[in-house]
Amino acid sequence: MRVLIVSDSHGEGELLQEVVNREQADHVIHCGDFCTESAQLPGGFATVVRGNCDWVEVPWEAQWEGGGIHFLITHGHRLQVGSSLLPLQYRAQEVGAQIACFGHTHIPLSERVNDMLLLNPGSLVNPRGGFPKPSYAVLETSGREDVTVSYFTPDGELLPGLGGKFTVIKRK
C-alpha cells in the first residue's frame, strides 16, 4: 500500500493535483490548510480534514484504515501541536490509531512514540522551522509490521535524512 500524505498546500490546488498525479498513491491524506474550493481537492480515494485557514466544510478530524493500519488525521491546531505533541499522542491513543498524521507546523516529522508513529509531511508550499524546502510524505507498507516514510519536494526530489523505516503492528 502506498499513501501520499500532504498538508498546508495553502491555495496551490494545481500543485497539489500535480503531486497527486505523479505519486499514483492508493490513498491520499491531506492534513488541512488546503485553502481551496472543494473541487480542487483530491476526490474519491482521499481523506481530507479542515485546518485553521480552511472555509470548506470538511471534518476537523478523521480516521482511516488501510493495509491493516489505523490512521488518525488532524490538522493539529486544535491539539496545540505547535507547543506539544502530547495532546496528539493522547488523542491517537484514545481512538486506537497506530499512525497520527498532522500538519499546522509546516515542519516535516516522522517519529515513533511508544506504540505509534507521529507523522507531519511538512508544508507543500511554505516550509518553516529552518527547514529549507517545501515537502510531502509517502508512506509505503513493506512486510507485515514495517512502514517506510519518504519525504519529497513538490517536484518529486527525494529529501535525504528525513523519514525512515518504522515498525507498526498491523491489525488483522
UniProtKB/TrEMBL annotation:
Keyword terms, alphabetized: Metal-binding
Metal-binding listed as a keyword: yes
Enzyme Commission number(s) of this protein: 3.1.4.-
CC cofactor: a divalent metal cation
Pfam families given in the database record: Metallophos_2
Gene3D superfamilies in alphabetical order: 3.60.21.10
Top class in the EC scheme: hydrolase
Domain of life from the UniProt record: Bacteria
Family: Belongs to the metallophosphoesterase superfamily. YfcE family.
Protein name (Swiss-Prot/TrEMBL): Phosphoesterase
Gene source species: Kroppenstedtia guangzhouensis
Organism taxonomic ancestry: Bacteria, Bacillati, Bacillota, Bacilli, Bacillales
